[in-house]
Write a structure and sequence with these properties.
alpha/beta, Gyrase A, domain 2, Isoleucyl-tRNA Synthetase, Domain 1, 5-stranded parallel beta sheet, 19 helices, 48% helix
């Protein structure tokens, strides 16, 4: 079958609705989900509940009619040998029960094809640029940046796995007022180190790292005028090292300073002016963003001749499209939420669809140590850095924990839990499942498909494990739709729990040869899925623990 089972079942329900002349009454997309309790089938749809108000009848009555229509369509479908039952259950849910042979065949594919069996060509080579982190080079990366790094990198991994052509980009804001303040902060600290009494402004960068930069600048005899660029380069080297240690590698480091030198900002303005989307008022130059749904027009050049933040950003996003990318994904912090409409307006002004830009707001993270939240102040340098988290809990736990909540939700990161080597620590729990399987497989040989009879896997825990494995592709689909990788962490914990339940109740080795081989094949399939999922998260897959 070319389509996956979920798509086929959805198509089957649509044909049944058409046959019953009900399709026109369904306002939203038909959705087939996994039941929360697999005693109620392998897939379920609530279509009858959604139609009950329109048809003024009970959901169970409507579901009964739909089941009759579905059963008439099954013999014409590719699913005729795979569906064992269709039932109305609960408040009016239509539940599909699949034949066990379907699950055995899918497990066999995973065993023989490995990760290839888990891939889907959803991207078809579409060019995607994910821009994330993009922290100003004015200090070490904070945990807020670290969360963006984990989310962006994992999302890029998932999209590549789904056959999108993905590049990772870091937009380097290496000019402007914050670089000037950085340079002046270093200058004052250098003077202070030379014995001068300094009254340090509140809005300057006050972390101890400024002293380090001042000492290095003095050693290299950097002029006061060059301190801003020197400090930014110094900090950028630190940022790059932190990201490498966090297993995040960018394909492109895009400099705002170089963008300004290239003349592309002026070129963008010229194009917008030709299109009639710029106007002058009160001595300033404005962008007509309200034409594209923004709540007000935006200044791009102030009356004093200086550019607003929006000016280079307009040119930057136009440049992304000029480089041939079809889909732009930006990961921003919550303080940038109000910026979305004006950027979307700018890409529409150049003729691009607003859907060609997805902006993901990544909420903040709070670090807990000994049960207490750690207070943070970026300008004062009083915050937990990515480096501190890496040194304390390592890259694996850091990445996994930063991904454990929806990006739209605030994240609490407990350092003490992340260090535990027990089932309380989610990443340890998942990695332990992988290592446990590896230890079993090390001493035996799993027979190839031709010598296996997977139909001997009849226990509930065995079938639950196969079914849980097969949810992986749907989970990646959800990650694509939501542009959020957090569901992978949830899924891997569920798969590990399902495996541990199976293993605690059933011996793998020492059974009749046929059953032993089938169970070895079963856990090998779990290992493949766990390894793939952990790999997409950028987390190691240990073979022993």
């Amino acid at each position: 079958m070319q389509k996956n089972i979920q798509e086929e079942l959805t198509a089957l329900v649509k044909r049944a609705l058409l046959a019953g002349e009900l399709a026109k009454l369904v306002q939203e997309e038909i959705v087939l989900d996994f039941p929360t309790d697999n005693r109620f089938g392998d897939f379920t749809t609530n279509i009858a509940l959604r139609l009950s108000k329109t048809l003024k009848n009970s959901p169970r009555h409507i579901a009964g009619i739909l089941v009759e229509l579905i059963q008439k369509e099954i013999p014409k479908s590719e699913l005729k040998d795979l569906i064992s039952q269709v039932k109305v259950e609960g408040a009016g849910f239509i539940n599909f029960y699949l034949d066990a042979n379907y699950f055995y065949n899918q497990l066999a594919k995973i065993i023989t094809q490995g990760e290839d069996a888990l891939k889907q060509d959803l991207g078809k080579g579409k060019k995607v640029l994910i821009e994330f982190v993009s922290a100003n080079p004015t200090g070490s990366l904070s945990v807020a940046h670290a969360r963006q790094a984990a989310v962006g990198d994992c999302l890029a991994n998932i999209l590549r796995f789904l056959n999108f052509s993905v590049q990772r980009e870091y937009y380097l804001n290496d000019e402007g007022n914050q670089i000037n303040i950085l340079g002046k902060s270093v200058q004052l600290r250098r003077e202070e180190l030379a014995g001068k009494i300094i009254e340090f402004p509140e809005n300057y960068y006050q972390g101890d790292y400024i002293y380090d930069i001042a000492r290095e600048a003095e050693k290299k005899k950097i002029s006061d005028a060059g301190l801003g660029d020197f400090a930014a380069d110094y900090i950028l080297k630190i940022i790059k090292k932190e990201l490498i240690d966090f297993k995040v590698n960018f394909d492109i480091w895009f400099s705002q300073k170089e963008l300004a030198k290239s003349g592309k900002v002026e070129q963008a303005f010229s194009q917008l002016k030709e299109k009639g989307f710029l106007f002058e008022q009160d001595g300033a130059l404005w962008f007509k963003s309200t034409v594209f749904g923004d709540d007000k027009d935006r200044v791009i050049i102030k009356s004093d001749g200086s550019q607003t933040y929006l000016a280079p950003d307009i040119a930057y996003h136009q440049d992304k499209f000029r480089r041939g990318f079809d889909w732009l994904i930006n990961l921003w912090g919550p303080d940038h939420h109000g910026y979305i409409n004006r950027i979307k307006a700018s890409i529409q002004a150049f003729g691009h669809s607003p859907d060609s830009l997805s902006v993901i707001i990544v909420q903040l993270a709070t670090i807990f140590r000994n049960g207490q939240p750690v207070q943070m102040s970026t300008r004062r340098g009083q915050y937990i850095t990515l480096r501190e988290v890496l040194d304390e809990v390592g890259s694996d736990a850091s990445r996994f924990f930063f991904l454990m909540r929806r990006t739209s939700s605030h994240l609490d990161f407990d350092l003490e839990v992340a260090k535990k080597q027990s089932s309380e620590n989610p990443v340890y729990y998942v990695q332990y499942a992988h290592a446990r399987i590896c230890s079993i497989l090390r001493s035996v040989t799993v027979l190839d498909r031709g010598e296996l009879d997977l139909s001997v896997l009849k226990e509930k825990e065995e079938l639950d494990l196969i079914k849980k494995m097969l949810e992986f592709k749907a989970i990646l689909n959800i990650c694509l739709i939501t542009c959020d990788p957090y569901m992978v962490t949830v899924y891997l914990q569920e798969l590990s729990e399902t495996f541990h339940k199976f293993y605690d109740q059933h011996r793998v080795l020492g059974q009749a040869e046929e059953l032993t081989n089938a169970r070895l094949a079963l856990i090998r399939g779990v290992k493949i899925v766990l390894s793939c999922g952990l790999g997409l998260l950028g987390v190691n897959q240990p073979e022993s623990m």
